[in-house]
Design brief:
By secondary structure, the chain is an alpha/beta fold. Helices cover 44% and strands 10% of the residues.
Length: 236
């Protein structure tokens, strides 16, 4: 029996990636770097989970001989860039630059009304989650979710299943009683590795990914209700 819905955040709950892209470029400019990520490059970089990991990967690709002049200097630069990027993103979300994708809020409300639990499983930062959901749901957003797994509690990024395993443990539920919602191949691999059936809602940055093994691939959750999810879950 279906007992819980577990949601990824970036790209799944909301189309956040264009704002994230602008935030990265803002940070690069503030730090005087000549990096400028366009949509095509960022789409490729999204195959690397985690903002800090993404920046470090790019740095090593444009500067293969990258070495540290001082212990921790590279990581300190990455951390500073990430702080600048996060501040830009938070402000953009507060100003209404990001909204939840179609059907997300309605499905969450329906699930809660029928006694299902909700959870978050993402490798983004707690600050990013709070900025989005506080704006979309309100200051009491955390009370809507039985468990929240993020980059602070599960540092090993997707496609590793760590964050999903953590969330399942925190909820005290088996994977067979839950459905996961993702938008990317890395997310699908992570959820599947944790034993979760997964519904995929691609976006313009991920619609070229391989979603083999997904329970269903749908454009968004606008036409997906709990009755249909229960049917898909039971059939699987």
């Amino acid at each position: 029996m279906l007992k819980a819905l577990i949601f990824d955040v970036d790209g799944t709950l909301a189309d956040t990636e264009r704002v994230h892209l602008a935030a990265f470029n803002h940070a690069f400019e503030l730090e005087g770097l000549d990096w400028r990520w366009d949509t095509a490059l960022y789409t490729r970089l999204l195959e690397i989970s985690g903002g800090k990991e993404r920046m470090l990967h790019h740095w090593r690709s444009v500067q293969p001989d990258l070495t540290e002049l001082g212990a921790g200097a590279v990581q300190a630069t990455i951390d500073r860039l990430h702080e600048l990027k996060t501040a830009y993103y938070e402000n953009a979300v507060r100003e209404g630059a990001v909204q939840l994708r179609p059907g997300v809020l309605a499905l969450m409300s329906e699930a809660r009304a029928q006694g299902l639990q909700l959870a978050i499983a993402t490798t983004t930062s707690p600050v990013n989650i709070a900025a989005l959901l506080r704006t979309a749901i309100g200051d009491g957003w955390r009370s809507h979710f039985l468990a929240v797994g993020d980059a602070s509690s599960s540092p090993i990024k997707k496609p590793h299943p760590q964050v999903y395993l953590q969330v399942l443990g925190d909820m005290g539920l088996p994977a067979s009683a839950c459905l996961a919602f993702e938008d990317s191949a890395n997310g699908l691999q992570a959820a599947t590795a944790a034993g979760l059936r997964t519904v995929i809602t691609p976006n313009s940055f991920t619609d070229h990914h391989d979603f083999s093994g997904a329970l269903r691939v749908v454009p968004d959750l606008g036409a997906v209700g709990l009755a249909q999810l229960r049917q898909w879950h039971a059939q699987a």
